Amino acid sequence: MTSIGILGAGRVGANLAAKLSAAGHHVTLGVRNPEEAAARAAAPRITFADQRATARTADIVINATPGDSSLDRLADLRTELSGKILIDVSNATRDAADGLPDNLVYPGSSLAEKLQAALPDTHVVKTLNTMLFTVMTAPESLATPPTAYVSGDDENARKTVTVLLGDLGWRPAWIEDLGDICTARATEAMILVVPHVLRRNGFQPFAVSLAR
Asked: Is residue 208 part of a domain?
């Protein structure tokens, strides 16, 4: 199985860590205080390290840090991320007064494109950013089959990520390979419809998906 490092131990990172660990992968969560996090951890197969060590030792790294600050955080890890696949599941948005996404931080571009430009020796792949975090690891929980979009310049990296999505419960028919990293600007923009839906219907699991 693969060694996976997850940068960010909030709801998104912890949710992904639990499912990937259960699938047999060796998972390290990159946190500010590894000792404190390990002491309160409920999943014994998940280890903890600081973010630099996590990026350096993992085969695949997942960015689950807040999207509005991800670029600065990860650009500082260029050496550690060199030659690796970086899966970006974050959205770079500025929030409205109610805490829901309001505007894109990178209009006309995307966080994924900015990360790829800042990390030229890393294979950035964008996915899982068009859904509530619970759906990332339980796509079968929705009444309508959801879609996981995949964007990245390296075809082999996209294929590797597609296989990893299968370990999270995603069926091949639910995965849409969009091609190069520039396509991530479309999926990142999709998040702007979400706050309007949530304000009208409440906070429920969702995915912005294709219907065929």
From this structure: no
Distance CA 208, CA 70 (A): 23
Please give the residue range of the domain that contains residue 126: 3-201
Interatomic CA distance for residues 108 and 106, integer angstroms: 6
Which structure tokens are listed for 154? 């390296």
Look at the block and give the residue holding tokens 């999505």.
165
Q: What percent of the chain has pLDDT over 70?
A: 95
- Residue 33 counted as domain residue: yes
Q: What gap in Å lies between CA 12 and CA 91, rounded to an integer?
A: 12
Q: Is residue 212 part of a domain?
A: no
Number of separate domains in the chain = 1
| Within-domain flag for 209 | no
pLDDT of residue 26: 95
Whether the predicted model's global pTM rises above the 0.90 cut:
yes
23-58 in b/e burial notation, b at 16+ Cβ within 10 A? bebbbbbbbeebeebeeebeeeebbbbebeebbbbb
State mean pLDDT over 183-204: 92
Domain CATH number, residue 193: 3.40.50.720
Convert the pLDDT of each residue in 119-129 to its tens digit.
Answer: 999 999 999 99
